[in-house]
Amino acid sequence: MKHTAPGLVLRTAPFLKHPTDTPNLMRQVLLALLPVVVAAAAFFGMAAMLVVGASTLGALATEYAFGPSRNRGSTLHDGSALLSGILLGLTLPPSFPLWMAFLGGIVAIGLGKLVWGGLGQNLFNPALVGRAFLQAAFPTTITTWAPQGQGFLHLSSANLAAPLMQARVDTITAATPLGLMKFQHELTPLWSLLVGNSPGSIGETSSALLIVLGLWLAWRRTFDWRIPVAILVTVAVFAGILWIVNPETYPSPLFMLFSGGLLFGTLFMATDPVTSPMAPLGVWLFGVGIGVLVVLIRLWGGLPEGVMYAILLMNAATPLIDRVIQPRPFGRGKHNVLEGDAR
Amino acid sequence: MSLPGTAARFPSFRHGIHPAGHKESTAGLAIEHLPLFSHYLLPLGQHIGAPSVPVVSVGDGVIRGQLLAEPGGFVSTGLHAPVTGHVSHIGPRRHPNGHLVPAIEIRADPFADDRPPPPSPTHAAGMDLGDFVKFVQKGGMVGMGGAAFPTHVKYALPPGRRIRRLVVNGAECEPYLSADHRLMLERPEAILRGTAIVAEQLGVEAVYLGIEANKLDALDALERARCGFPDLDVLQLVPLAVKYPQGAEKMLIKAITGLVVPAGKLPLDVETVVNNVGTMAAIADLFDLGKPLLERVVTVAGSGVRRPANMLVPLGTSVRDVLEACGGISEDTSMVIMGGPMMGMPLASLDVPVLKGTSGIIALAAKDVRVSGTYGCVRCGRCLQACANFLNPSRLGRLAAVGRYQEMQKHYLMDCMECGACSYVCPSGIPLVQLFRMSKAEIRNREVAT
A338–B271: do the CB atoms touch at under 8 Å? Predict the structure, then answer.
């Protein structure tokens, strides 16, 4: 008797699969970044495009060269290197030297992801590792901001600095809203923070656009909505209390929410599933931790902006959170009632 | 996908998934009968527990309903001739799971009288519980939702224990399947009759029948039929949220009564027994007609089936015969599943028999047997949100990949009911439940070895 029908696939249950896969999740985030990139082009011109391109190129080249040696380049298809490269570029100033952005891309993927073992294994958000490296290596350049509205084709000479050369800071520079607040006690109008026509990193300036994209991603369930909600509510509450106590010294919670990299970091970096906790309670803790750290660093730290370090610090705390906060298995609680029906 | 708000409107358990139902193709199709085929193959181990022991020999003539094999232990059931004919073989034959197992083969007599025999009812009312349990056991009753756990075992109470609630399972949460749905529409009286018999025997205080809200017509049919059962005034028909795995015993109890069965324990520990609607109808037939378990409703569906159907299939009918009665399978069929697509088993051959626990035969065309890529775990936590047992499949998967089975046990691997929700949602295509089944088998093997 014939026992196997040729062509029948043998696999074990379940035989159904939710259509969303990991590259698909990456594509959803990439799609959400598209309007950010377009807005950046409008605000900062071609220079911004080139910086994002350089960091992305660095990230992709590193993934290709140092990714799995068997089937080289295969991991490029999951889209995570592309995403990290673009994210890194969007956190840099528009007048950033291209070679530095390229180097940042290499570090983001090399030290931020591949040395850990590739996708899903890294402790820290790769794009932020790249940015932290650049911040440590080129502290002045990364805090030199070009003003907006210099025309699409404008490139500052810093952009084109030769590799391994320090950028000549001969461009017109401007202060970011957070810098103005911290060092000059001058507040940027809220309207300008929402629209985004104020100096800052390439992707972070338009709060209104970021809010819309964040809502879209949450609605698509691309990321865990709890993370942005926890961070933003914490910042608003913490900053709000300080503001109520002493409105002379401390900025309003709305200014805190809409200025700097808070929204961009919250929506695109903190929500990275790899480097955030898994259980819902852990996720809330993670978000609250970031919110508290952002306010602490911004108001009492030496730097005007603290989103990057806040996220990286909570990334470091994630394995601990995941170890301590586990879901409690069904039927292992203490709430079993035997007397009578519960309903 | 469920509409927003349905989960809030109907009771359910927490977590779980919403796979596409795929039930439209068969939900409207009345149960059909099959023609007589030449051979019927009855493996002796169709249920969980000890295999049945043959009481016939090769060459014996048997009539439909005659006992072929008696229970081989307490956790075992009787097995009966689904058709009239003679015993052509007793020995190893291919089980749907791929193993060679002892089985009885019946060659059908095409000239036999195929009219149903006159009913020979047994009155359950006068029986004591011990006789009732033996009668149900000999009648071959098993859970017909798919697990095929011998039904009588649930009724045999250890001393000092009692059952206060009977929960009848009409959830049918597996995609594609509509066999229970059709049974509830076409034979609501039989289901209620079986329910009444069991409820009276166990002396329960409350009876519930849970149905997923995508089958509200079945709820109506049962509601209309219940006026014939004044004894069942305690019965509550409960519409439930459409969510997988709503039909899992513990999830059903949670949804309907709010009670949580402790991990590693049975529904008995919350004084509850759960039976499938198909089992209830079979028990009604056993007592009212004197008909043991001979046949069952099987949903034949999937993109590879030419004519999807719900069929009343005599046990032992070969899958090939059933599929051919449904117009055969298309050229591009690349997978045939026995049971539902979430927990069923893949068939390597169509020449295997329909068993007592076979709720469906699903043939899928190549386009539906998509192999998704496998990526590293991105720790998205979707599996944690899917797991109705509140385990951490992501962590268990990482441990399984490196063979740390003892640590897996500490993370409650043994609580896993293998519903497959984790594998369904994993965007990285990690075969989580598959790893867990393998790990559990490995742990059991090591326990046996020591």
Answer: yes
Residue for token pair 């898994």: A278
Q: For residue range A177-233, what is the model confidence (pLDDT) as tens digits?
A: 888 887 877 788 888 888 888 888 999 888 999 999 999 999 999 999 999 999 999
Residues A169 and A192 placed together within one structural domain of the fold: no
Other beta carbons within 10 angstroms of residue B191's beta carbon come to: 30
pTM of the predicted model as reported, rounded to 2 decimal places: 0.91
Q: Which of A174, A200, A219 is the last residue of a domain?
A: A174
Chain B within 8 Å of A8 (Cβ-Cβ)? Answer: yes
Predicted ipTM beyond 0.90: no
**Are A121 and A192 contained in the same domain?**
no
- Whether residue A248 is contained in a domain is answered as yes
- Residue B107 bridge partners (DSSP): B39, B86
- The verdict on residue A340 lying in a domain is no
Q: Give the structural domain span for A309.
A: 180-327
Q: Distance (Å, rounded) from C-alpha A51 to C-alpha A89? A: 6
Chain B residues near residue A278 by CB distance under 8 angstroms: 379-381, 384, 392, 394
In terms of CA atoms, which chain B residue is nearest residue A118? B376
Number of domains in chain A: 2
Does residue A297 lie within any of the structural domains? yes
| pLDDT value at B3 more than 60 | no
Residues A201 and A152 in one domain: no
Q: Are residues A168 and A269 in the same domain?
A: no
Residues A28, A133, single domain; the answer is yes
Single out the residue of B150, B340, B143 nearest to residue B245, CA to CA: B340
Q: Pick from A4, A18, A117: which is nearest to B348 by CB?
A: A4
B306 to chain A, closest Cα gap in Å: 17
Q: How far is B347 from chain A (nearest CA, A)?
A: 7
In a domain, A205, yes or no: yes
When pLDDT is cut at 50, 70 and 90, the band that residue B2 belongs to is very low
Interface contacts A/B by beta carbons within 8 Å: 187
Q: What percent of chain A has pLDDT over 90?
A: 63
CB B314 within 8 A of CB B40: yes
Helix axes A98-110, A126-137, angle to 10 degrees: 130
Residues A215 and A132 in one domain: no
Q: Examine the fold and report which residue of A106, A141, A174 is the final residue of a domain before the chain moves on.
A: A174
Residue A228 · residue A287 · CB < 8 Å:
yes
DSSP B274-298: EEEHHHHHHHHHHHHT---S-EEEE
**CB-CB: which of B17, B264, B349 is closest to A4?**
B349
Is A21–B336 a contact, with Cβ atoms under 8 angstroms apart?
no
